[in-house]
C-alpha cells in the first residue's frame, strides 16, 4: 500500500463505516439492473474487517517492509509498508509467494523420521520430543568427547541475524556454513578491499543520479536491493532524465529499460571499465583533487597502467564498439558527481571478476562521485552495533548471555590443536606459514578453506561449493549434519556431488534438515524438522538504506505456525535444552516475543508502537553523504595518537585506527587499514603468495588489471559460453512451488541469438543437448578432459542475446518440492508419510488435479535441471563461484 | 488529548471512500519493468485458479532494438462493451462509475462474452463455473483502496483514477502524454489507456518472449481451460 498523498485516496474524515458493511450497497446500473454489490464482493477480502499487520517480506533477498492482511485466520494478501524507507510501500510478485508457500498443500507440517533407505522418500510422523531427543542424542557425545566441530550446520538463507550462530557457538563448532560464495563473494571482496569490512555492499544514490553505468546487475528482476533501486531508478529516468547504460549478455528487464543496452562478451566487463578509465584520463575529465586526497595510488602510475587499455582494445575483447565506450566514458565523467557505476554477478562471477569489479569501482573514485549526492554512496546496514555511519543510533543487539565462539585452529595457546592436527600435513604447513592475522581467523577447511584466504580475510564468506568435495576428500569428519533452508542438492554447481555425499552414510552419518518444504535437500535427510514460514515467525531486520538514512524493522508473526511447525528460534532453543551440558543457559528464552522485545529495547519508541509501525527510522538524521569527511569529535579523539598521518586509539581490543589527518585536520576517512580508498591493496598478492598462486595470475595483482578468462582464450568457433539467470518471479531455487509465480515461469529453454541458431542449423523449438567443459585456470579440477555434465532442452531465439552466449534460467527443473514444482498431476503422490493439507488452498481445488503445464496434460512440464552440468569453479583466493565462465558445446538431437 | 495519528492501513474502513465518477486506468509502458507484480497480486487478491488471468504482463520483442517491451493486459472496461451486448443473460452489467462487471449468479456459461471480447480478457472459471474478468477490484475500491494491480506496481506504471475529473492525475497525464487505448481500431472506447503503446505491439501480444515455444501456453484467448 502506498501513502495516500502519492495516490488518489480521499480522506473523508472519521465517518466510521459499520464493520463489514460496504458504503454503496446498491448502485443503479446503466442496463437498468440493480447491482448487488454485497453479492459481487462475496468471498473477497473484506478490508474493513481484515487485520493489517506490518512485517518484513522474505520473498527474496531484499526484505521489504510489508503489510499482511489476515482474515478468518489466514493471510490473504501482502502489500507494501509505506513506512519502509527502502521500499516506500512498493513490493513485487515474490511477496505474494509467501502466501503460496505458507499454504502449500505439501508443506512440511510435522517432524518426520526416515523409515526406508536414505533418499527413498519414505517417512513417518514423529513427535517433537522424539525428534529432538534423537538429534540431541547424536549431538551430546560430540561435545562430551571434545569434538564439537563434527557437528556441521549449513544454511541456505538465514536471516536470524546471529541466532543460529548463538547455537553453533554455544555448541562449540565453527561450522556454521553458508552459500555466500555461490552468491556474491566475488563482488563483496573488491568492495571490502576498497572501502573496508563495513562496506560489503554499496548504496548508490539513485534518487539523485543523472547517469548510471551498469555492468551486469539486474535490479529490475533479481538483485539484492533491486526493488529499492528499481522504483528510484524508474522515477529518476522518467522525471529527471537520468540515463542508464547496461552491459549484459541477454536483454534482461534491466537491459530493456535502460536507455542503452550493449551485449558484451562474458567476462570482459573489466576491459570496458578500463577503456572508460583510459578515456576519462586522456580527456582529463577525472576529479584529480578527490583522487589525490582519497585514493592510495598515484595518478601517474594509473595512467601508465591503462595506457594500452584503449577503447579499440576493449572492443576487440568485449565486442562493445570503441566509439560507444568513448561516448559513455565522457558522458559518465561529465555527469559527475551525480553519476554512478553498478555491478553484480554479470561482471563479478568470472575468473577475472574480482579484478573487473575493482576496475569498475575505480571509475567512481576517478570521477570523485564516492559518497556524493547522486553518486556511489556507502551506507552501512547490517546490524546496529554502532558501525561506521551508525553513530548516534540506539544500539540494537541480540540479548545475552551470548556464548563465546570456538577457538581458532592451530598450534599454541588459545588454539584448538586437536582439531588442527587432524588436518593433512600439507594444510597444517600452509596455515602455519600464514601471517598471524589469518592464523587467528582459521577454523578448519569447511569454515575457512586455507586455499581461499580472501573468503575469510574480511569475514567468513566461506566457499560453500567446496563443502561437499572437502567432506568427500576427508578434510573434515562429519558426525551430525544439519541443513537449514538449504537447497544445495538442487542448486549448487555439480549438485550431483552434493547429492552423492548426502547419500553416503559413511560421510554423513546423520542428516537433519530444517525446512518449510520438502525439497531435494530435505529428501536426503534422516530427520526433517518443519519450520514456521516468514509469515509465522520473528526476525530482526536491518539493511543498507537507499534513502541513505539507517532504519530497522521487525518481522513478526501474522498467524500461528501451521501444523506443528516451529520457528527456527524455537527449534534451536528446544534442542539446546535437550543437548544440555551448559548450552541451555544461552537458551533460557521462554517467550520468543520477549526475546525480540529485549533486542529492540533501546529504540526510542515502545515495543507496541514499533510492532504497530513495523519500521523505525530517525528521519531527521542527515543523509550518509561524505561520511569520510566528517571531522572526528572530541570524544572520538580522546586518548588517540597520530602516527604516520593515521589517528590511532588503544582499545580493549588492541590498537585501532579511527581516522586520518587531512590538511592538518582529523577526519574519519574510510574504515580501511589506510583510512583511504584502497585502489591498491597488497592483500591480493599476499594471499596469492600464501597459497602458491602464480604471481602472473590475474587475481594476484594488488591493482586491478585485465586478463581474459583462461578458458575463453582461443575459444573455438563451435564453442559457446553457457550462462544462467534469474527471472523476476522467482528467487534462487526456492520458489518453483509458488503456484502463481511458477505459472508465469515454469520452463527454461535455451535462449540464443537467431544468427547463432542459424549457424547451428537450429529452428526455434528444436531440442538440443548442451554439454559443459571443465574450466582452465587455477581452480577445482581445472583442465580435466571430458565434460562436467549435459542436459537436454529446447531452443528459444532472442535477438538481444550475445551471439556467443547460450542461456537458461535456473529455479526450475525440480525433482522435489511437490506438485507445482514438479509440474505433476493428481496421480503423483507426495513422498510416503508426508501428509498433504488439501484445505490449504481452499480456493484452488483445481490444484488437486495438478498444474496445467504438467506433461501428462500435454504441457511442457516443469523445466530442466541444469545445475549438475555446471562445474564447481571457485575463483582463486576469494572462492566465489565463477558461474558464468562455462565453455559449452551444443548438439541438435 | 488528540487522537493518535492513524497509519495508512489503519484508515481503511473508516477514512477512505470510493469517490470516482468514471473509473479508468493508465498503464505507462515507459515505466513498466515487466515484473508481474500486478498479475500475481491480482491472482492472489481474487484467488484466480491456475490457468487463467484477469491481468497479465506480456513480454514483446522490440522490432527496432534488441530489447523487450512489457505490456500489462487486462479488461479495458469499454464504453461500448461487446461482452455486455453479447451476454444474453444480463449477467454483464455496467456500474455507475463506468466499470463493467460480471454478476456470477446470472452467468449461464454460454461463453458469448468470451468470444465477443476483442481483448481476450474474459475466461471461464471452471471451479466456480462462471465467466470471470477484471472488475477493477470492486471490493477494494468500495472501501477507498486502489485496485490490487495499481497498488502493487513497484515502478508506478499502473495508475487508477477518475476520467470524469479533468484534474485527476490520470486525466492530466493522458492528455499530456497523448495516451491511447490498446487496439483502438476495435472501436470499443476503452477506459484503460496506455503511454508508450506502439502499434506493432498489438500484433505481437500473442507470441511474447516469456511464452515458451513448446509450451501449451494459456494464451491471449484464455481458452485452454478445457485441458483442466
TrEMBL record, chain A:
Residues 1-32 form the signal peptide. Residues 50-106 form the 4Fe-4S Mo/W bis-MGD-type domain. This is 4Fe-4S Mo/W bis-MGD-type domain-containing protein. Keywords: 4Fe-4S, Iron, Iron-sulfur, Metal-binding, Molybdenum, Oxidoreductase, Signal. It comes from Rubritalea profundi. SMART domains: Molybdop_Fe4S4. Pfam families: Molybdop_Fe4S4, Molybdopterin. InterPro entries: Asp_de-COase-like_dom_sf, Mopterin_OxRdtase, Mopterin_OxRdtase_4Fe-4S_dom, Prok_Mopterin_Oxidored, TAT_signal. It comes from the Bacteria. One of its GO terms (molecular function) is metal ion binding.
Automatic annotation (TrEMBL), chain B:
Pfam families: Fer4_11. Transmembrane segments: none annotated. Keywords: 4Fe-4S, Iron, Iron-sulfur, Metal-binding. One of its GO terms (molecular function) is 4 iron, 4 sulfur cluster binding. CDD domains: PsrB. Residues 23-53, 98-127 form the 4Fe-4S ferredoxin-type domain. Gene3D superfamilies: 3.30.70.20. It comes from the Bacteria. InterPro entries: 4Fe4S_Fe-S-bd (IPR017896), ET_IronSulfur_Cluster-Binding (IPR050954). The keyword Metal-binding applies. Coiled coil: none annotated. This is 4Fe-4S ferredoxin-type domain-containing protein. It comes from Rubritalea profundi.
Amino acid at each position: 500500500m502506498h501513502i495516500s498523498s502519492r495516490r488518489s485516496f480521499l480522506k473523508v474524515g472519521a465517518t466510521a463505516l459499520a464493520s463489514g458493511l460496504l458504503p454503496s450497497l446498491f448502485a443503479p446500473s446503466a442496463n437498468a439492473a440493480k447491482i448487488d454489490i454485497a453479492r459481487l464482493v462475496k468471498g473477497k477480502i473484506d478490508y474493513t474487517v481484515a487485520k493489517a499487520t506490518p512485517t518484513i517480506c522474505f520473498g527474496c533477498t531484499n526484505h521489504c517492509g510489508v503489510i499482511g492482511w489476515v482474515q478468518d485466520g489466514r493471510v490473504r494478501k501482502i502489500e507494501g509498508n509505506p513506512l519502509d524507507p527502502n521500499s516506500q510501500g512498493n513490493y513485487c510478485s515474490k511477496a505474494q509467494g509467501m502466501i503460496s508457500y505458507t499454504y502449500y498443500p505439501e508443506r512440511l507440517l510435522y517432524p518426520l523420521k526416515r523409515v526406508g533407505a536414505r533418499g527413498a522418500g519414505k517417512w513417518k510422523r514423529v513427535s517433537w520430543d522424539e525428534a529432538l531427543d534423537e538429534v540431541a542424542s547424536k549431538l551430546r557425545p560430540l561435545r562430551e568427547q571434545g569434538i564439537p566441530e563434527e557437528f556441521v550446520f549449513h544454511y541456505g538463507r538465514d536471516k536470524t541475524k546471529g541466532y543460529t550462530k548463538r547455537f553453533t557457538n554455544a555448541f562449540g563448532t565453527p561450522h556454521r556454513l553458508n552459500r555466500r560464495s555461490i552468491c556474491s563473494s566475488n563482488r563483496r571482496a573488491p568492495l571490502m578491499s576498497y572501502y573496508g569490512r563495513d562496506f560489503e555492499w554499496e548504496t548508490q544514490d539513485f534518487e539523485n543520479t543523472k547517469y548510471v553505468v551498469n555492468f551486469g546487475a539486474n535490479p529490475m528482476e533479481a538483485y539484492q536491493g533491486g526493488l529499492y533501486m528499481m522504483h528510484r531508478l524508474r522515477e529518476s529516468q522518467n522525471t529527471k532524465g537520468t540515463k542508464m547504460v547496461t552491459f549484459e549478455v541477454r536483454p534482461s528487464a534491466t537491459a530493456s529499460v535502460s536507455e542503452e543496452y550493449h551485449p558484451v562478451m562474458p567476462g570482459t566487463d573489466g576491459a570496458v571499465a578500463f577503456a572508460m578509465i583510459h578515456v576519462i584520463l586522456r580527456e582529463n575529465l577525472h576529479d584529480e583533487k578527490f583522487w589525490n586526497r582519497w585514493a592510495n595510488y598515484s595518478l601517474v602510475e594509473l595512467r601508465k597502467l591503462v595506457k594500452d587499455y584503449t577503447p579499440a582494445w576493449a572492443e576487440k575483447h568485449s565486442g562493445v564498439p570503441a566509439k560507444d565506450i568513448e561516448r559513455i566514458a565522457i558522458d559518465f565523467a561529465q555527469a559527475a558527481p551525480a553519476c554512478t557505476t553498478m555491478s553484480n554477478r554479470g561482471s563479478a562471477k568470472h575468473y577475472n571478476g574480482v579484478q573487473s569489479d575493482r576496475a569498475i569501482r575505480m571509475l567512481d573514485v576517478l570521477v570523485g562521485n564516492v559518497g556524493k549526492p547522486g553518486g556511489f554512496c556507502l551506507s552501512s546496514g547490517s546490524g546496529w552495533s554502532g558501525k561506521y555511519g551508525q553513530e548516534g543510533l540506539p544500539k540494537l543487539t541480540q540479548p545475552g548471555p551470548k556464548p563465546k565462539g570456538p577457538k581458532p585452529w592451530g598450534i599454541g595457546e588459545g588454539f584448538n590443536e586437536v582439531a588442527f592436527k587432524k588436518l593433512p600435513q600439507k594444510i597444517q604447513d600452509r596455515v602455519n606459514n600464514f601471517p598471524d592475522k589469518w592464523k587467528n581467523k582459521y577454523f578448519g577447511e569447511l569454515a575457512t578453506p586455507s586455499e581461499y584466504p580472501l573468503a575469510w580475510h574480511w569475514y567468513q564468506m566461506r566457499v560453500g561449493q567446496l563443502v561437499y568435495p572437502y567432506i568427500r576428500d576427508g578434510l573434515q569428519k562429519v558426525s551430525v549434519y544439519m541443513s537449514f533452508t538449504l537447497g544445495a542438492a538442487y542448486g549448487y554447481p555439480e549438485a550431483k556431488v552434493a547429492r552423492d555425499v548426502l547419500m553416503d552414510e559413511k560421510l554423513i552419518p546423520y542428516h537433519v534438515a530444517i525446512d518449510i518444504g520438502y525439497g531435494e535437500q530435505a529428501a536426503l535427510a534422516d530427520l526433517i524438522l518443519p519450520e514456521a514460514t516468514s509469515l509465522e515467525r520473528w526476525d530482526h531486520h536491518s539493511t543498507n538504506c537507499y534513502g541513505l538514512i539507517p532504519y530497522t524493522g521487525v518481522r513478526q508473526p501474522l498467524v500461528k505456525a501451521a501444523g506443528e511447525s516451529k520457528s527456527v528460534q524455537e527449534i534451536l532453543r528446544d534442542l539446546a535444552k535437550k543437548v544440555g551440558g551448559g548450552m541451555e543457559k544461552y537458551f533460557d528464552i521462554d517467550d520468543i516475543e520477549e526475546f525480540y522485545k529485549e533486542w529492540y529495547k533501546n529504540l526510542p519508541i515502545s515495543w507496541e508502537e514499533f510492532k504497530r509501525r513495523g519500521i523505525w527510522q530517525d528521519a531527521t538524521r542527515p543523509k550518509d553523504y561524505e561520511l569520510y569527511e566528517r571531522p572526528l569529535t572530541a570524544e572520538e579523539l580522546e586518548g588517540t595518537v597520530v602516527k604516520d598521518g593515521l589517528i590511532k586509539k588503544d582499545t580493549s581490543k588492541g590498537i585501532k585506527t579511527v581516522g586520518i589527518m587531512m590538511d592538518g585536520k582529523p577526519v574519519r576517512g574510510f574504515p580501511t587499514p589506510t583510512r583511504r580508498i584502497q585502489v591498491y591493496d597488497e592483500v591480493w598478492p599476499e594471499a596469492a603468495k600464501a597459497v602458491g598462486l602464480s604471481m602472473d595470475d590475474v587475481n594476484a595483482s594488488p591493482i586491478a588489471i585485465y586478463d581474459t578468462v583462461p578458458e575463453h582464450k582461443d575459444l573455438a568457433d563451435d564453442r559457446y559460453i553457457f550462462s544462467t539467470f534469474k527471472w523476476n518471479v522467482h528467487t534462487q531455487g526456492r520458489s518453483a512451488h509458488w503456484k502463481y509465480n511458477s505459472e508465469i515461469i515454469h520452463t527454461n529453454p535455451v535462449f540464443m541469438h537467431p544468427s547463432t541458431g542459424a549457424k547451428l542449423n537450429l529452428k526455434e523449438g528444436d531440442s538440443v543437448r548442451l554439454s559443459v567443459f571443465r574450466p582452465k585456470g587455477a581452480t577445482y579440477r581445472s583442465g580435466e578432459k571430458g565434460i562436467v555434465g549435459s542436459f537436454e532442452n529446447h531452443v528459444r531465439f532472442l535477438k538481444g542475446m550475445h551471439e556467443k552466449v547460450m542461456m537458461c534460467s535456473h529455479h526450475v527443473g525440480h525433482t522435489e518440492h511437490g506438485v507445482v514444482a514438479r509440474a505433476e498431476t493428481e496421480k503423483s503422490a507426495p513422498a510416503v508419510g508426508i501428509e498433504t493439507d488439501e484445505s490449504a488452498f481452499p480456493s484452488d481445488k483445481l490444484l488437486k488435479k495438478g498444474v496445467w503445464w504438467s506433461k501428462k496434460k500435454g504441457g511442457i512440464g516443469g523445466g530442466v535441471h541444469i545445475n549438475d552440468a555446471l562445474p564447481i569453479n571457485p575463483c582463486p583466493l576469494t572462492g566465489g563461484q565463477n558461474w558464468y565462465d562455462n565453455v559449452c558445446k551444443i548438439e541438435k538431437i | 488529548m488528540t487522537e493518535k495519528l492513524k497509519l495508512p492501513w489503519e484508515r481503511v474502513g473508516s477514512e477512505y471512500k470510493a469517490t470516482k465518477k468514471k473509473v479508468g486506468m493508465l498503464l505507462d509502458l515507459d515505466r513498466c519493468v515487466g515484473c508481474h507484480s500486478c498479475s500475481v497480486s491480482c491472482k492472489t487478491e481474487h484467488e484466480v485458479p491456475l490457468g487463467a488471468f484477469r491481468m497479465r504482463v506480456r513480454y514483446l520483442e522490440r522490432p527496432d532494438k534488441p530489447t523487450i517491451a512489457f505490456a500489462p493486459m487486462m479488461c479495458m472496461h469499454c464504453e461500448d462493451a461487446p461482452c455486455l451486448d453479447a451476454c444474453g443473460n444480463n449477467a454483464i452489467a455496467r456500474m455507475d462509475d463506468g466499470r463493467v462487471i460480471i454478476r456470477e449468479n446470472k452467468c449461464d456459461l454460454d461463453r458469448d462474452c468470451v468470444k465477443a471480447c476483442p481483448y481476450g480478457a474474459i475466461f471461464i472459471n471452471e471451479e466456480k463455473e462462471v465467466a470471470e474478468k477484471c472488475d477493477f477490484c470492486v471490493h477494494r475500491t468500495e472501501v477507498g483502496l486502489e485496485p490490487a494491480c495499481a497498488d502493487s506496481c513497484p515502478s508506478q506504471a499502473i495508475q487508477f483514477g477518475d476520467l470524469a475529473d479533468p484534474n485527476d492525475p490520470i486525466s492530466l497525464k493522458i492528455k499530456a502524454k497523448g495516451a491511447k487505448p490498446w487496439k483502438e481500431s476495435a472501436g470499443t472506447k476503452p477506459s484503460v489507456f496506455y503511454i508508450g503503446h506502439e502499434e506493432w505491439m498489438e500484433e505481437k501480444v500473442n507470441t511474447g518472449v516469456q511464452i515458451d515455444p513448446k509450451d501449451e501456453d494459456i494464451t491471449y484467448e484464455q481458452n485452454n481451460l478445457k485441458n483442466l
